[in-house]
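Before going further, learn to read the protein records used in this course. Taken together, the tokens spell out the fold as the letters spell out the chain. A record is reproduced here so that you can trace the correspondence yourselves:

***
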Amino acid sequence: MSDTFYDLTKRISDSFDEIDSDIVTDLADTNAEYAALRQQLGDLKKQNPFINEVFDGSGEIMLSDEQHGVLREYFRLYLKADNMERQQIYFRGHTDNFAYLKKIDAI
């Protein structure tokens, strides 16, 4: 293999957690709807500590009807935010790919 070979796939794989974090941070800074969703999720967790207990998974948890409703709302908001994140990652991949192709004079 040549000394000039650059394994872009490995570099991206090794840096994915940081790249993902940067994309989500950028999304929160530029998309008011996403930022509001993240705020709602945080508020629900603060107001309803049992949500953390559900995620900790350390034993049996009994939920009231009201708590079950809150948890369902939390999951609904979480999935909406997650979908927004996945869409942002998808589009970011396209823009990064376009920039890379320009850089190597492929387009």
Summary: The chain has a mean pLDDT of 91. The chain is about 80% helix and 0% strand. The radius of gyration is 20 Å.
